[in-house]
Design brief:
The structure is a single chain. Strands 1, 2, 3, 4, 5, 6, 7, 8, 9, 10 and 11 form an eleven-stranded antiparallel β-sheet that branches. The chain is built from one helix and eleven strands, in the order βαββββββββββ. The N and C termini lie far apart (about 100 Å). The protein is about 5% helix and about 45% strand. The N terminus is likely disordered. The radius of gyration is 25 Å and the shape is globular. It has one domain: Lipopolysaccharide (LPS) transport protein A like domain (lipopolysaccharide transport protein A fold, Sandwich), CATH 2.60.450.10. It is mainly beta. The longest helix is centred in the first third of the chain and has 6 residues.
């Protein structure tokens, strides 16, 4: 195990192609871009394949941006990575493929699993895409099925009802729909009653 403070180059070399993001979330080119990390402190455990970044952590890869107070990355024997970002609140942002639109996610904990191609948001979780937004205690997105699953969590006591899932889904404009018609202006007609101009 070695410890490095403010020296991120060894960690970057250990984390090639960190966390290829899900296809619907991800700009596909992001997975081929280098990972850039900034933190106050880095702790690398080569034996366990665990890297821990602490202190205003910022991770970027192409259009993907993750911020948190701490990010822990574990690599398995096959090279797949599982990353967990912690914060009050940790955040995720990434451009969607082929669109000028971003997906933003927030939670006290955000987990990425490159093997399962999932991203999970925990505790006061929230995801925004364009004008749509969903909230719950746990949100999972699967790139394989392109499905969001939002859970409300369990009640903290028998007397308290479970929390509710909340969503705001904006209507989408119909393809080829004409814009609202502007009322016709009064037509201008020549008048035959006016004398000709001199």
């Amino acid at each position: 195990m070695c410890q490095a403070k403010n020296k991120l180059l060894p960690a970057i070399l250990l984390l090639p192609a960190f966390l290829c993001a899900p296809a619907c979330f991800a700009e596909r080119a992001d997975r081929d871009k280098p990972v850039h990390l900034e933190a106050d402190q880095v702790l690398i455990d080569d034996a366990q394949q665990i890297s821990t970044f602490t202190g205003s952590v910022k991770l970027t890869q192409g259009t993907m941006l993750i911020r948190g107070d701490k990010i822990v990355v574990v690599q398995d024997n096959e090279g797949f990575k599982h990353g967990t970002a912690y914060g009050n609140t940790a955040s995720f942002r990434q451009k969607r493929e082929g669109l000028d639109e971003y997906v933003e996610g927030y939670g006290e904990r955000i987990e990425y699993d490159t093997r399962a191609e999932t991203v999970d948001f925990y505790v006061q979780a929230r995801i925004k895409r364009d004008m749509d937004e969903v909230r719950g205690e746990h949100i999972t997105y699967s790139a394989k099925t392109e499905i969001f699953q939002v859970n409300s969590g369990v009640a903290s006591s028998e007397k308290e009802p479970p929390k509710r899932v909340r969503a705001i889904l904006q209507p989408k404009p119909k393809q080829g729909a004409a814009s609202p018609a502007v009322p016709d202006a009064l037509p201008i007609k020549s008048s035959e009653t006016l004398p000709p101009a001199d």
